[in-house]
Amino acid sequence: MNTMPKVLILYDSQTGNTEKMAEAVAEGARSIANVEVIVKYYARPEELTEASAIIFGSPTYYHDMTLPIKQMLEEAARVNIQLKDKIGAAFGSYGWSGEAPKLILEILKNRFGMKTIEPTQTAIYTPNQAKLEECRKLGRAVAEKIVT
Ligand SMILES: Cc1cc2nc3c(=O)[nH]c(=O)nc-3n(C[C@H](O)[C@H](O)[C@H](O)COP(=O)(O)O)c2cc1C
Questions:
Q1: Which listed residue, 60, 95, 112, 135, has the most CB atoms within 10 A of its CB?
Q2: Buried b vs exposed e over 8-34: b needs ≥16 C-beta within 10 Å?
Q3: The model's pTM
Q4: Residues with CB under 6 A from ligand 1
Q5: Do residues 25 and 69 lie in contact, with contact meaning Cβ atoms separated by under 8 Å?
């Protein structure tokens, strides 16, 4: 039986920039032993409850998170999924305003009662090596918090 605590990394990316960040976050989380790391675009509400930590990645389009991410959060809220006290974090690439990760973090904190990790990780367009290292650090920090 697999009883390792899970980190779920859920992201959207239209042109690959947030995807690069997601890969680095996952790499960081995987550097911690005894943590299962799952990276995907979509999870059903029940899958969210199985994770000990959920890290959302969304680029900013039209001053907002992207629709798939918004819909996933709304779907979870609609069925009143219990995520209280799970660890939550957010990241994303942007061009000029970059609202998405902060909006996500507010929802995780205020709507779902998650313990959020601040600050969010952001990159202007393509993440450089320093930004990718920050993303790895975020992944590591989250995984360290849930390992028993
Ligand atoms: C149609 C369109 C709308 C955008 N709107 C915003 C915006 O409101 N604020 C912002 O910071 N960046 C905006 N951007 C820039 C994207 O966030 C940026 O290109 C980002 O790197 C995309 O990440 P991705 O490769 O993960 O999709 C927009 C880009 C496009 C093409």
A1: 135
A2: bbbbbbeeebbbbbbbbbbbbbbebee
A3: 0.98
A4: 13-18, 59-63, 93-98, 125
A5: no
